[in-house]
């Protein structure tokens, strides 16, 4: 075909090709822009979801941590407070001998105190034998009733066993019992002499008729007159009764 004969046709063909080419280029550009836009949206969406998941995980961890702290703190705090109270009780410098004795044991000790005085007013040896009296009983009577002592010196020593009290008995030159010393028990001593303090003496008996310091033993004797008899509560350095003497004084 001779193109020169058909100039209009050539112009149309060339124009159509340019249009088609331009349209193709425009479509490719639009497709690329759309793809970039989609990728951007997907990226933003993924980032937002990731950030949201991270925030949710962090919030869950924070709540769990707070819950663990809340659950774990109370028992520890209570234990610490309990231990602090225990330490305070144990280390209180103002605590007295009575603090280590419960009420029942303390009452038993007070009963012993009053029993010693009640029997002492009659000259009776407390809880050894109903027939033994200072100022009346002879040494031979004691030997015939409970046997000879484990130790004989200034005092005859009778050692108690199985929670029984020990005693020292002293006689004059004629063999008359003139002093009975109550030594208390070794087992559960807090229920008798180990639970008696000078405060108890004053509360139960009033002020002593005489108070004597024993320099050699660093003990203090609280002396109460009971008519023909005298009872002496000998207190150790800790202000606890060490022994009790019942004497015949007439």
The tally of helices reads 4
How much helical structure, as a percent, in the residues? 40-55%
Shape: globular
Query: Kindly, what is the distance between the CA atoms of the first and last residues, rounded to a whole number of angstroms?
Result: 173 Å
Would you give an account of this structure?
- The chain has 250 residues and is of the alpha+beta class.
- The model is unreliable at 1-13, 15-54 and 69-80 (pLDDT under 50).
- The protein has an 8-stranded antiparallel β-sheet with strand order 1-2-3-4-8-7-6-5, covered by helices on one side.
- It has a domain at 102-248.
- The termini are far apart.
- The protein is 48% helix and 19% strand.
What attributes characterize this protein structure?
alpha+beta, about 250 residues, 8-stranded antiparallel β-sheet
Summarize the structure.
The protein has 250 residues and is α+β, with helices and mostly antiparallel strands. The chain has helices spanning 7-91, 103-120, 139-146, 198-205; strands at residues 151-152, 156-158, 166-171, 177-184, 210-214, 219-226, 229-235, 241-248.
Topology of helices and strands:
Elements: H1 7-91, H2 103-120, H3 139-146, E1 151-152, E2 156-158, E3 166-171, E4 177-184, H4 198-205, E5 210-214, E6 219-226, E7 229-235, E8 241-248
Antiparallel strand pairs: 1-2, 2-3, 3-4, 4-8, 5-6, 6-7, 7-8
């Amino acid at each position: 075909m001779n193109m020169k004969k058909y100039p209009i046709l050539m112009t149309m063909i060339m124009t159509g090709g340019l249009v088609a080419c331009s349209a193709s280029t425009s479509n490719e550009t639009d497709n690329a822009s759309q793809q970039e836009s989609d990728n951007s949206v997907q990226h933003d969406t993924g980032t937002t979801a990731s950030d949201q998941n991270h925030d949710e995980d962090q919030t869950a961890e924070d709540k769990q941590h707070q819950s663990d702290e809340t659950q774990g703190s109370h028992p520890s705090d209570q234990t610490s407070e309990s231990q602090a109270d225990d330490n305070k009780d144990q280390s209180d410098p103002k605590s007295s001998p009575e603090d280590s004795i419960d009420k029942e044991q303390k009452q038993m000790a007070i009963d012993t105190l009053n029993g010693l005085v009640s029997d002492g007013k009659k000259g009776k040896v407390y809880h050894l034998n109903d027939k033994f009296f200072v100022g009346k009983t002879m040494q031979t009577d004691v030997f015939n009733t409970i046997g000879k002592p484990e130790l004989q010196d200034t005092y005859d020593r009778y050692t108690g066993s199985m929670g029984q009290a020990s005693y020292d008995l002293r006689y004059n030159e004629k063999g008359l019992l003139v002093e009975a010393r109550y030594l208390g028990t070794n087992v559960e001593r807090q229920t008798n002499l180990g639970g008696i303090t000078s405060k108890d003496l004053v509360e139960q008996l009033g002020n002593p008729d005489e108070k004597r310091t024993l320099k050699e033993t660093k003990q203090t004797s609280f002396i109460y007159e009971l008519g023909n008899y005298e009872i002496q509560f000998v207190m150790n350095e800790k202000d606890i009764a060490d022994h009790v003497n019942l004497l015949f004084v007439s």
